[in-house]
């Protein structure tokens, strides 16, 4: 639990003003950090928590928190006791000056050694590849990663939690790498490479598909936000990822061997077979139509559940945003994230794919979306339960109480604001609803409840679920 600091003596009990700062992580990306976040997430990813319960050190605490958020690209909390928030204090007497945060720099010598070692390692490989990981975001290395992909000629993949951080419209993009559930032909190329550069990876039970990746450390150059490890060693610290990638790009020999191999074996995925007009809607048909809605003016928010796997397969056009939260997978995150993203990214229409179980946790955020006049498109996927959990560990608790979701949103709407809701059960109805949401109702919040069979899942969920389930039920290590 987060400590109840606001109940300290001398402060008003009960209410505190909590500001959660969102971090700008690059010049044009805004990470939505509103939304439901599990306590475990708060404790592990939160960098600073400033508890302002007296005014003497408030100035310093607030400055430190804001500076940390900007420097580390991580969320911080500032709690201000409500009986202090309106008081004056001499430390706040002047207008604030723009904050200047000294830029962090790489250790030059170490950077040179690391680049030298990595270039030698990769240049002697026959068919090297690159994989982008989620820490590219906090390392502010999106551009540098794309730059090295351009310069090297290597094919590149993305780890699932890094989707949206690498350019998928690039000709050498080969899809998502997550072992057995990767984009077709992607894992084969990555795992058969004789060298791979991983930028900012996080290998956990989910991204490693229950620890089943066929990777070898001795073939990897692992670039973390401020550290590089080449093979089983050496390791180099105090190096910033963008500096390293930019310097390495100049030192790599161009090598398209892995990409050429990929091209030779590649067979494109096919669209799902068409159904009969009045047949119950299938999930793969739903996502075929969502794919067609994407452009540089949209952003996808994918909730935990089968939506993870279906959204992961959407190929993002240039400029299309993408967010999901895989480290903890706290359900309900996406409703708040949709609200936050839409509020910050005024140039994009947010398309959110949310399972019924997840939506039940944070449904009330739709109210604030309507109050803010947002025109998000929410696909509420009603499959009657916690389908992802069925595949990991089934039990009667995975069947949930069915709600009238459009009825709920209509009640929240209550004839105030711009809102349009629709339940769809067939492809024809879906197509009509999408046409409406992008046509006559394009300025409305569009809430489309998609009713599908409870066992209708992506094939990736079935595979991933079996593997994660096996990892979850392995015997504990001997003590
Ligand atoms: C806050 C929280 N509670 C419980 C879980 C466990 N959990 C993970 S996915 C999931 C079910 C998601 O169901 P739904 O949103 O309907 O997605 P579906 O797989 O059915 O598409 C649950 C309960 C979690 N990850 N986070
Ligand atoms: Mg569900």
Automatic annotation (TrEMBL):
<dbReference type="GO" id="GO:0000949">
    <property type="term" value="P:aromatic amino acid family catabolic process to alcohol via Ehrlich pathway"/>
</dbReference>
<dbReference type="InterPro" id="IPR047214">
    <property type="entry name" value="TPP_PDC_IPDC"/>
</dbReference>
<dbReference type="InterPro" id="IPR012110">
    <property type="entry name" value="PDC/IPDC-like"/>
</dbReference>
<keyword id="KW-0460">Magnesium</keyword>
<dbReference type="GO" id="GO:0000287">
    <property type="term" value="F:magnesium ion binding"/>
</dbReference>
<dbReference type="InterPro" id="IPR012000">
    <property type="entry name" value="Thiamin_PyroP_enz_cen_dom"/>
</dbReference>
<dbReference type="InterPro" id="IPR029061">
    <property type="entry name" value="THDP-binding"/>
</dbReference>
<dbReference type="GO" id="GO:0030976">
    <property type="term" value="F:thiamine pyrophosphate binding"/>
</dbReference>
<keyword id="KW-0479">Metal-binding</keyword>
<dbReference type="Pfam" id="PF02775">
    <property type="entry name" value="TPP_enzyme_C"/>
</dbReference>
<keyword id="KW-0210">Decarboxylase</keyword>
<protein>
    <recommendedName>
        <fullName>pyruvate decarboxylase</fullName>
        <ecNumber>4.1.1.1</ecNumber>
    </recommendedName>
</protein>
<keyword id="KW-0456">Lyase</keyword>
<dbReference type="Pfam" id="PF00205">
    <property type="entry name" value="TPP_enzyme_M"/>
</dbReference>
<dbReference type="InterPro" id="IPR029035">
    <property type="entry name" value="DHS-like_NAD/FAD-binding_dom"/>
</dbReference>
<dbReference type="GO" id="GO:0004737">
    <property type="term" value="F:pyruvate decarboxylase activity"/>
</dbReference>
<comment type="subunit">
    <text>Homotetramer.</text>
</comment>
<comment type="similarity">
    <text>Belongs to the TPP enzyme family.</text>
</comment>
<feature type="domain" description="Thiamine pyrophosphate enzyme TPP-binding">
    <location>
        <begin position="326"/>
        <end position="435"/>
    </location>
</feature>
<dbReference type="InterPro" id="IPR011766">
    <property type="entry name" value="TPP_enzyme_TPP-bd"/>
</dbReference>
<dbReference type="GO" id="GO:0005829">
    <property type="term" value="C:cytosol"/>
</dbReference>
<keyword id="KW-0786">Thiamine pyrophosphate</keyword>
<feature type="domain" description="Thiamine pyrophosphate enzyme central">
    <location>
        <begin position="115"/>
        <end position="232"/>
    </location>
</feature>
